[in-house]
Amino acid sequence: MARSAPWLDPSTNRGPAIIFGFMNRVRRTLEIDAETDARLAEIAAERGQDVAAILAEAVALLDSVVDLAGPDVAEDRKRLDAFRATGEAIPLEDVKNWIASWDTADALPRPAPRKTG
């Protein structure tokens, strides 16, 4: 079953040729697991593109949603100080249960911080 993404042209299921069609090629050897390799080949075949174009789109997407400039240490420190002062946090199990309930008839409300251990 073909997967699609909102930035792809729905008629071709391909990304913008202007961005990816004329890239300079560099030979690079990557070690990836067999499942990832198979999925890359499957996506490439579905879209009629080569694996390099699929990887270029994936990197562009990652770059558009992940801030790789570095962590916000000041924000992290502020949150750690708040935890130390109150002892309140949201346990991981609460978050996992909340996420697992999404799109179900029994969706849970967002978990609230509470005193921990």
List the SSEs and their pairings.
Layout lengths: L16 H4 L13 H14 L3 H15 L7 H14 L1 E2 L2 H9 L13 E2 L2
Antiparallel strand pairs: 1-2
What does this 3D model show about the protein?
Helix 2 crosses helix 3. The protein folds into two domains: 49 residues; 43 residues, no CATH class. The N and C termini lie far apart (46 Å). The radius of gyration is 21 Å and the shape is elongated. It contains five helices and two strands. With 117 residues, it is mainly alpha-helical. It is 48% helix and 3% strand. It has a two-stranded antiparallel ribbon with strand order 1-2.
Q: Roughly how many Å is the radius of gyration?
A: 21 Å
Q: What is the CA-CA span between the terminal residues? A: 46 Å
Number of strands: 2
The strands making up the biggest β-sheet line up spatially as: 1-2
State which percent range the strand residues make up: under 5%
Given helix and strand content, the structural type is mainly alpha
Helical segment count: 5
Order of secondary-structure elements: HHHHEHE
> Helical residue percent?
40-55%
What would you call the shape?
elongated
